[in-house]
Amino acid sequence: MPSDRRAVVTGSSSGIGRAIAQALLGDGWHVSGLDVSPPTLDHPQFHSVQVNLADGPATETAAQRLAGAHAFVHAAGVLRVGGLGSLNAADGELMWRLHVDAAQCIGNHLVPAMAAAGHGRVVLLGSRVAQGKAGRSQYAATKAALAGLSRSWAAEVVAQGVTVNVVSPAATQTAMTEDPARQAAAPVLPPIGRLIRPDEIAALVSFLLSPAAAAITGQDIQICGGASLPR
Q1: Which of 128, 182, 195, 211 has the fewest CB atoms found within 10 Å of its own CB?
Q2: Model pTM?
Q3: What average pLDDT score do residues 187-204 get?
C-alpha cells in the first residue's frame, strides 16, 4: 500500500461514517468524505465532497473524480420502517439507491483501478437486519443485496490484491437509532446490555483496511454484542 493512502468514505458527516473517517485520519490516511450534509470534520487530510448519494448522476460525477483511491468504505445509510400492508415504495427506492446503487456506482469506478494497481480495500456497511426482521423488509433487502454484491466483487478481484468485505453491526448508537420518529420501533439492545458504539465499528474497518488483513475477503463480519449467540 502506498505511503499516501487515500480512502473514500461515504456518510462521513455523522454516525458510523464519521467515526470511520476520523479513525482513518488518525491512522494517516487521506480521506475524501462523501455526504449530503456539510462536513463535521476539520483535518488537513480530509476532503469533503457534498453530494446526494441517492442521486445517480451526481454520484457518478463524484465517483469519476475519486479514481485512484486505495480504499472505499460505504457507510452512508438511512432507515425507513414499515410492515406488510403499509410498505412505502418511495422509502424502498430511497434505501436501494443509497445503500446499493451508490455502492455499485462508486465501486464500479474505484475497484477496477485498485485491481490494476495490485492493491486495494473495500468495506460495505451491512446490518444484522439483513437476516430478516419484522417491519424491516425493505431495509433488510438492501443490506442483503450488499452481501451478495461484496462476495461477487471479492471473487472478481481476489487474485489482484484487493479485498472486499461487509461489516454488519447490531443496533448502533447513532442519530438513526435515536430518531424520535421511530420510537414505536426502538432498537433492541444486544446481550451486552448496550448499543454498539460507532468507534467500535471504525476499529474493525481500520483493521480490514490494513496490510494485516490482506487474507480476509468475501466475509460478512458481525459486530453484534452477543446477539448472534445461541439462546
Answers
A1: 211
A2: 0.92
A3: 92
Count CA atoms closer than 13 A to 99's CA, side-chain side.
28
228: cell is: 448472534
Q: Please, what sign has the CA dihedral across residues 150, 122, 176, 193? A: positive
- All 3 cell numbers of residue 151? 462476495
**39-95: pLDDT as tens digits:** 999 999 999 999 999 999 999 999 999 999 999 999 999 999 999 999 999 999 999
Cell digits of residue 176:
438513526
The Cα–Cα gap between 72 and 64 comes to 13
End-to-end CA distance of the chain: 42
- Could you tell me the three cell numbers for 90? 418511495
Rounded to whole angstroms, what are the CA distances from 1 to 71, 83, 164, 209? 10, 46, 15, 10
Burial of 55 (0-12, 13-18, 19+ CB in 10 A): middle
How many angstroms separate the CA atoms of 178 and 31, rounded?
27
Please tell me which residue, 230 or 56, carries the higher pLDDT value.
56
Question: Whose CA is closest to 80, among 176, 173, 165, 169?
Answer: 176
Q: Which of 16, 74, 35, 48 is nearest to 202 (CA)?
A: 16
Tell me the pLDDT tens digit for each residue of 169-187: 998 887 655 555 445 556 7
